[in-house]
Write a structure and sequence with these properties.
By secondary structure, the chain is mainly alpha-helical. It has 17 helices and no strands.
Length: about 280
């Protein structure tokens, strides 16, 4: 997604610059060289070139998108707060630029500021009510904030645009499950699995709901299928270890815990998956 946004920035900026002047200026050359440097992953050089372009033409029409490029560079090099500042400048210069709003919203999510991200996704949807990414992310935030009715509206809106959208189907399943609509939740998940039988996420989500309903054999089968499809995901081993712990299959739980540890699971995650509620209370 970030590469796609970066490519869109590049093409948009080139179009803006081409329309601005019939002949390439030193400003345009700096920007083009900066874009090339970004494509070559020469981020330090790209940053320098973009900075020179901004100094050369501080009021150029293409500058908001240059700030977007700089934000992307800062984020890729672990300078999130500088990236946020760059996005703020870009949005301040061009507040209706969807790419900048989406980039800043994504960064807010990374920084754990869902409320600020929600404002940007709302602004995107005010400009384009059918924007898939903004609909999906707003629905996700609303779901996490237990605004189930609003989350359902966004997921259903997205599915009306794209009836086979996997993440929307799974998100709607979670909303329906939280809203005590188990039948609809399972229908959503089963539809996602029918459409994407080689994707692990649907099986894992269904297994979690089956586990909650104490349908242990089905849950085990679905966790096993998820692991078969994505054998390098520690979370699926942890989830199955939790199932084995609940069903008192200690040896299998330990085996899955070791597999999860090899894949990078933390000690805390492993304890959570292999201890009973009574043991966890003692551990805490």
């Amino acid at each position: 997604m970030r590469k796609l946004i970066a490519c869109c920035f590049c093409f948009s900026l080139i179009a803006v610059l081409s329309a601005q002047e019939p002949e390439e200026t030193s400003y345009q050359m700096l920007v083009r060289q900066g874009i090339t440097a970004m494509e070559d992953d020469s981020l330090k050089l790209a940053e320098s070139l973009f900075r020179q372009a901004l100094q050369k033409e501080p009021n150029a029409i293409g500058n908001p998108l240059i700030w977007g490029h700089l934000a992307s560079i800062y984020e890729r090099t672990g300078r999130e707060h500088e990236a946020l500042e760059a996005y703020n400048i870009g949005v301040g210069l061009a507040p209706q630029t969807i790419r900048l709003l989406l980039g800043r919203a994504s960064l807010y999510m990374k920084l754990g500021n869902e409320n600020r991200a929600l404002v940007d996704y709302n602004d995107v949807l005010a400009l384009n009510a059918d924007h898939p990414e903004a609909l999906l992310m707003r629905a996700f935030i609303r779901q996490r904030q237990h605004l189930l009715k609003d989350a359902r509206m966004d997921f259903e809106h997205l599915l009306s645009i794209d009836p086979v959208h996997e993440q929307a189907l799974l998100g709607l399943a979670l909303v329906n499950d939280a809203d005590r609509r188990p039948k609809e939740a399972m229908e959503n998940i089963n539809r996602a699995i029918e459409l994407y039988p080689r994707h692990a996420a649907g099986y894992a989500l269904r297994a979690g709901m089956e586990l909650d309903r104490k349908v242990y054999e089905r849950a085990e089968a679905d966790y096993t299928k998820a692991i078969e499809l994505e054998p390098n995901d520690a979370h699926y081993y942890l989830a199955r270890a939790r199932l084995y712990t609940l069903t008192k299959q200690k040896r299998k739980a330990r085996e899955d815990a070791r597999a999860a540890a090899r894949l990078g699971a933390t000690a805390e995650e492993i304890v959570g998956a292999t201890k009973t509620k009574k043991q966890l209370s003692r551990h805490q």
